[in-house]
Every structure is written in C-alpha cells, then in structure tokens.
Amino acid sequence: MKSKPSARLQDSDNLMNAHTQPPTPGTPNASESPETLGGPSFDQIRDAHRRIAAHIHRTPVMTSASLDALAGARLYFKCENLQRSGSFKMRGATNAVLSLSEQDAARGVLTHSSGNHAAALALAARGRGIRAWIVMPSDAPQIKSRAVEAFGGQIVFCEPTLAAREAAASELAQRTGAVLIHPYDNDRIIAGQGTAALEFIEEVPDLDFVLAPVSGGGLLSGTAIAAKHLIPAARVVGCEPRNADDAARSLAAGKIEPAATTKTMADGLRATLAPRTFAILRRLVDQIALVSEEEILASMRLLWDRLKIVVEPSGAVSAAPALFALAQIGGQDKKVGVILSGGNLDLDSLPFGRA
Q: What is the pTM of this model?
C-alpha cells in the first residue's frame, strides 16, 4: 500500500504550485544582452569535472523503496549533502579557484554568501594556499559562519539584505584587491555546479525528470545545461519555497523580479536571479515547483527517517515536489532524479520538537 503524507500536509489546500513552462527556448527578452545569453557550455562542465575531480567527493546516489511507494515513482537522490564543505557549492568554488591564474590567485578571493558558498570558497582557497574574505549577513546560521572560520575564511558581517551584501563586497574588493567570486553569476561557478548533474546522469542515464533547488540559479543553470545535453527529453524542474518565490515570478513575468519579503526556513534560497542565470533558466528549465514550509519540514524528516541522512531545509526543497506533488509536475510512474543540495543543518535549532 502506498504511504501517504502527514495529515497536516493532506489537509492543506494548494500546497504545491507548479508554474507552467517558461517562454519557448530561443525567445529571450529584447533587453537581454549577448553576454547574458551565454553561460558555460556542456564542454566547460566536462572540463570543470576533470579539473575538480581530485578535490571533491563523487557523492552517492541513494534510493528507497518506501519513498518510491510514497511518491508513486522511482526516486533517485544525488546526495550533495555529503559533499566536502557540506554542499554542492564546493564544486563551483573549487572550479573557480583552480581556474585562477597564479597572478590572480596571489590576490586572494572574496565573495558574499549566506553560508554554503562562503564555506566552500574558504575551503577551496585554503586548498590552493590563498586568502579568502567572506561577506556574510548578520543573520547567517552560526553553523555556517563557524565553518567559514574553521576553513580559514575572514568574515565581514553586514545587514541581511542583498544590497548590503553586494555593497560590502564591493568595498572589500577595493580595499583588498581580492578577486570577487560571485556565488552564482559566474560561468566557472555554474560549470562547477553542473558537474553534480553530470555525475548523476552518468550513474542514472535514463532519468525522466531532474529536480534541483533554485535561488540565485547557479546550481539549476548548471543542472539544466548538463541534463538537456545528456538527456534532451528529460524535464528539468526548479524547486523553490513559496515564501521565496522570486524565480517563479521572474520566469512567469519574463523579467527578474525582486526577492520576496516573507521568511523561509530555507535560508540558503533567499538570493535573486542574475541576468546570466535568468537567461539560462528561461531557455532550459521546464517549470518551477513551489513548496510550502510544511512540505520542506516533512521532507527533511522523511529523508532522515528513510535514507538516514541529514539534509538542510534548502536541500530538502528539491525533495518536496518528488515526495508530495509528483502528479502536479507530471512525474508519477517516472524516473525522477533529485539533487539534495546541502546538509549544513544547525542541529540545535531543529523545529522537530524536543523531548
């Protein structure tokens, strides 16, 4: 008998809203410049994988018969929560750092990030023996700021807005001369993130769907480039909290929309798309699925219970459509790949309740 979601989920109305397919590939806005229509090629993703392979984990793909029964499909989970630094961000950061010339590397690197990219860049920089400066919002989870410090990154805190992060990073770049490694608006970052899907499809080559979370769009862009090259018929679905739905609104409106003002437990998915990632998603992503806070929490619990792995809220966002709303995205009885993007969860703040 097929398992069912919790009563709390069953009783909610319209828990998942799958947006319709974005504009036809190849028909971008007239305002989009040639630069924003590029992004890395599949060959660049392949090159990135060769460059970083010795410096990252080839993360496992996990399955669960009980989760298949719950979803009514065959689910495959690419476990980037088990990646070095605790998330997929290690892929892009490593590719970007290793791609620097000796002259540029000597200047050090900097970025702004709420956590996972920050930790990954600090670790990648340490691996190359260079300095890393990290701008982090003042409300970043302590587990992520501690990781940055443990990896040798120098943190500068700022107000928890994207504008404040960008302003602080610009000032820091002028003061230090360090090379800015943007969390997602960077072809080398996108190419590195795309290596997760490359590995995934090498292991499971006949996926019908590939699901990945979306925030700034680096992971989803790289995933879409790799998936559409290797499995052209596969549908690529971006997954986003309903409380941080700017990617869904942007694709529906045909222009980049501002970040939502509501709160989400998925703290790593609060960034907005860049012109570069927006253009890639418009061309290659088939739809965006929105998930509720209840579904994110329920997905975390199910992954912990059935797969015995810890996944942070941002990572569980991509599992929620697979576990609770496959019919709405057309995935029932299909082979569905899910990228679990990270596992940097502050165990002291788990909302599951305490004994």
A: 0.88
Considering the domain boundaries, does residue 65 fall inside one?
A: yes
Among candidate residues 64, 85, 113, 114, the one labeled active-site is 114
Instruction: List b or e across 4-43, with b for residues whose CB sees 16 or more CB atoms inside 10 angstroms.
Output: ebeeebeeeeebbbbbeebeeeeebbeeeeeebbebbebe
Query: Looking up tokens 């630094």, which residue turns up?
Result: 85
Contact status, residue 291 vs residue 16, Cβ threshold 8 Å: yes
Handedness of CA 56, 58, 64, 67 (dihedral sign): positive
Inter-residue contact 122 to 132 (CB < 8 Å): yes
CA 257 to chain centre: 19
Residue 221 shares a structural domain with residue 282: yes
Active site residue 89: yes
Domain for residue 286, yes or no? yes
Domain-located, residue 130:
yes
78, 89, 228, 334: the active-site residue: 89
- Average pLDDT of each block of 10 consecutive residues along the chain (355 residues)? 34 34 35 54 98 98 98 98 97 98 98 91 98 92 88 94 89 96 97 98 98 97 98 98 97 94 90 96 98 97 97 97 95 97 82 52
In the residue annotation, 41 being an active-site residue is answered as no
Residue 175 DSSP SS3: helix
